[in-house]
Amino acid sequence: MIRLIYAVLSAVFFVLFGLSAPVRAHEGHDDAAQPAAAMPSVPRLVAEGTDLELVATAKEHDLTIYLDRRATNEPVDGASIEVLGEGIPQQAAKEIGDGIYEIEADWVHEPGTKALTFVVTVDGAADLLGGVLTISEHAQETGPASPLVTLLRQPVVWLVALTLALGGFFLGFAFRPVRLPEPVAPSPPATALATRALKNVAEIVLIAVVLASAAPRPSHAHEGHDHGGEAAPALPAGTAPVKLPSGEVFLPKASQRLLDVRTLPVTPEKTRAGAELVGTVIADPSHEGRVQAPMDGQIELASGEVSYIGKAVKAGDVLALLSPAMPVYERGTLAQVTADVEGKLRIAEQKLQRLTRISGDYIPQREIDDTKTEIESLREQKRVLEPKNTERLELKAPVNGIISMATVRAGQVVSARDTLFEIVDPQRLWIEAIGLRGTDDQDEVATAVAVDAEGHRIPLTFVGRAPALRQQALPLLFSVDEPHASLGIGGTIKVLIQHGTPVDGIVIPESAVVRAPNGLPQVWVKVAPERFAPRPVRTRPLDGERVVVTSGLAKGDRVVVEAAELINQVR
After folding, report:
1. CB–CB of 29/136 below 8 Å?
2. Can you tell me the distance from the alpha carbon of 267 to that of 511, in angstroms, rounded to the nearest whole number?
3. Of 86, 105, 135, which residue is a domain's last?
4. What region, left, alpha or beta, does residue 238 occupy, with left being phi > 0 and alpha being psi -120 to 50 degrees?
5. pTM, 2 dp
6. 51: containing domain
7. What is the pLDDT of residues 290-334, one digit of tens each?
8. 3-state SS class at 349
């Protein structure tokens, strides 16, 4: 029981001593809760001009300078940069590529605050950029240590532990229980008593250290400092992208070079709003042909081959031969008429022979001429009445183009009006789109473009509309100005049109719009050389490559138009 009291008293003494040792901030520092956008611990300088922006980072004896265009975030190559400051000799930076410049100097490694001026010359124009570079003694530390390591680094902890160990050792001997010696049992040896005392001291020290490590220790600021609340979590060392608590993204210049980030200053303008329609590719009616069977019959090959799908043909080319099919009763009638004509032809020929053998004025010349005319007429009738099973009809292509459908085979029996071939011109296509009311006026459709599944933009020309509604909308017809290989007749494609009254909006590339975690559209706006903020926006389609932002952006905002999706993935 007495040993437990010793342990508790020692632990309370240690905790009180630890709480009485305040941790004070250094002069010139503010330990208030840092804003969410606090800059990383790597020494860096940020300077912005009218056309240029500059970021300089210090590491050991090197000062790395990143020079970009402020509007587009494009790296500036071939610039001349000179650095000078109070107590710092003027020195020129050397270019190492991709808008990165470097200076080697001993003053870069020296702790302190340095006001630097950069004289930048680009394309013959000089610009002055200035900023303050603060290098602390612990600037090279990569991150905060664990609480246990921080506690063990403090000398006062070891001093208190040693004091408690000595105090516990003496207390253990001073207040140990006194026992009367018994004559029967021999007294324990001195070594056993010392071992027991050391064991008690060790237990006391162990309990005290554990309690002191778990106890909170308040911090007090020096003059000019404010511990207004808990400090924000420490950011990484400044060499990797990170998403800040405010939702902004800190993206170092080195990462911007890697991702090839580009921005675009936006300006409101008047433009026609767009509408997205669902279209179907059809053939140009003026360049589409269809071959049908004029009568019942049997298909035969033309020129020794069957016309196939994909074959290019010209108007008038023979695609196949059709042998007409004749019923049995028609064959009997035809044979009877043919025999009658042949009989009359033989009689007329014999008559002409008799008339030609008679000479003189006994036979008028008129009778001989009539007989010859009768013979010619009968011969023509005989030619026409030849057996129809020997006749072949030629099925010809009506237009130039490519066979898109062929449903015939050699020996196939077809019926009248059966469609045997369809021919289209792949360079003459139309698109039929289901539109909305109000888009049927040709003057109101300013531009139209089709976008296929691969993102190809295909210009269209508005032709007209169908007078009847389909799916409660007006079918609009467009001709394809420049056909693409991805267009197939009967395929579905997206059609974007601009129509209606012009509205005020901001036009940006479609690639700049990404999805926020809640699924709504947003863009990334550059608010500082190394910070990007998300902006929720409302958009409307324009022409397949651009969209119109109707709200969410203001004039002069620098919107990320390249690598926006990569910035959106930073966590």
Report:
1. no
2. 18
3. 135
4. left
5. 0.57
6. 44-135
7. 999 888 888 888 777 778 888 899 988 888 888 887 665 566 677
8. helix
